[in-house]
Write a structure and sequence with these properties.
14 helices
Length: 419
């Protein structure tokens, strides 16, 4: 972490304010202790506007990616200030990288691709078989949020990815450095990246640590006026499903809300598999369970961003004809847990996609009464069934995280499936 004085209006912690025993050299004539000007102990924060302007000044004007909580302030600024032709919020990271490659091929300019490090898995293939210096040598700037940075508190899945990230980048031949949290340092990093891309024709990565950016509030937020939010909809679903039914919850706020609803209702957690990572794969996990346990109804509680990220899974689900499979997508049109950046969830006919993929039934609801009726109706149908629940974005400010370990969740869930 770079420690310099920035002079921005943001709360800072000055370590020199910690009380200590004054010495003779550190007292006034009145024997009152005084503190030296330890400005190097004040935290810096990189203003998203300053960083964006630095990128523009170095000819970076095209942005594509998948939002990340560590990048939310910068991504919010880009969303508010770049037109839709030059900023694409992609369904997944591999898609974003490929879009960026197409942009470079058609313009000769250098694009910016942003992602959380958990999305590295989605870009390994195009990085190794498309942009690599020995294949098509396509340069671009990768802005990667460093979740699970060693020494920083985070969730289990991020610890694994955070520890492995640097090694993965090195093995793929991606040169990288940590993005400084002050504009002078950030400018030098951008210039170094540009030099690398011009001379080596390959991607260059800037790693973004937690709290690098100054706070920025997204102006163009998704405004959706629906009767229910996600947590309210999940509670209705819990009311309606059977005692032996199984739930696979997608990543993000949904699994956290599901966990806390079970606590509130004094119900066991063993019926739920909480997919804390691997965004977009909850539906396939649920399918594997449904095919192996045909006597149990299996509910996948999905999000619009997760469904869209690996939408091809719907074709596999549809073609299996799993009669006990119930797919519920809670659609709020936003990447809610990483900054509320918009998805295309409200612009796409998800039910038509499900029916075209082979689902037996599909419906869209938004109110509590509609949801209860749809759940009852779809229970009578041999699946797979699809239910889109249109909800408003947002989550409780006091929403916690699961207190049980992932291994305990797995063990309890497997024991429940054996009943």
């Amino acid at each position: 972490m770079f420690l310099r004085h920035l002079g921005k209006a943001r709360p800072r912690v000055n370590l020199s304010s910690i009380s200590r025993i004054p010495s003779a050299a550190m007292t006034t004539k009145q024997n009152q202790p005084r503190q030296p000007p330890f400005s190097e102990l004040e935290r810096d924060f990189l203003d998203p506007k300053d960083f964006f302007q630095t990128l523009q000044q170095n000819s970076f004007s095209f942005f594509a990616g998948v939002p990340d909580s560590l990048l939310k302030d910068f991504c919010g600024y880009v969303t508010d200030h770049v037109d839709s032709k030059n900023h694409i919020i992609a369904a997944n990271e591999g898609l974003a990288l490929s879009l960026a490659a197409g942009y470079h091929l058609s313009t000769g300019r250098f694009p910016v691709v942003y992602l959380q490090n958990s999305g590295l898995g989605n870009i390994v293939n195009p990085l190794m078989s498309l942009t690599h210096q020995q294949i098509y040598a396509i340069p671009m700037l990768l802005l990667i949020g460093w979740r699970g940075e060693p020494g920083k508190k985070d969730e289990p899945q991020h610890y694994v990815q955070g520890k492995a990230m640097n090694g993965l980048l090195t093995e793929m031949g991606i040169q990288y450095e940590v993005l400084p949290d002050f504009i002078e340092g950030a400018t030098k990093s951008v210039e170094a990246a540009l030099y690398h891309m011009k001379n080596r024709s390959s991607p260059y990565a800037l790693l973004v640590r937690r709290q690098t950016f100054l706070n920025y509030s997204l102006k163009n937020r998704v405004e959706i006026d629906k009767p229910m939010n996600r947590e309210e909809a999940v509670e209705v679903i819990l009311d309606e499903i059977g005692a032996h039914d199984v739930i696979v919850g997608t990543t993000g706020f949904l699994s956290r809300e599901l966990y806390e609803l079970r606590v509130k209702r004094k119900e066991s957690h063993e019926r739920d598999f909480l997919t804390v990572g691997c965004m977009g794969h909850a539906s396939s996990i649920a399918l594997g369970i449904a095919l192996s346990k045909p006597s149990r109804s299996v509910y996948c509680l999905d999000g619009d961003g997760a469904f869209l990220m690996h939408m091809g899974a719907a074709t596999t689900i549809g073609q299996t004809k799993a009669a006990n499979y119930r797919h519920i997508v809670l659609n709020n049109g936003a990447h809610d847990s990483v900054g509320a950046q918009p998805t295309v969830g409200y612009s796409v006919d998800l039910c038509s996609i499900a029916m075209a993929s082979g689902y037996a039934a599909a419906a869209t609801v938004s109110s509590e009464d509609e949801l209860r009726k749809a759940l009852a109706e779809q229970r009578k149908v041999k699946g797979p069934t699809f239910l889109e629940v249109r909800i408003r974005p947002g989550a409780r400010v006091d929403l916690g995280r699961p207190k049980t370990s992932t291994l305990a969740n797995k063990q309890g869930f497997m024991e429940f499936l054996r009943i």
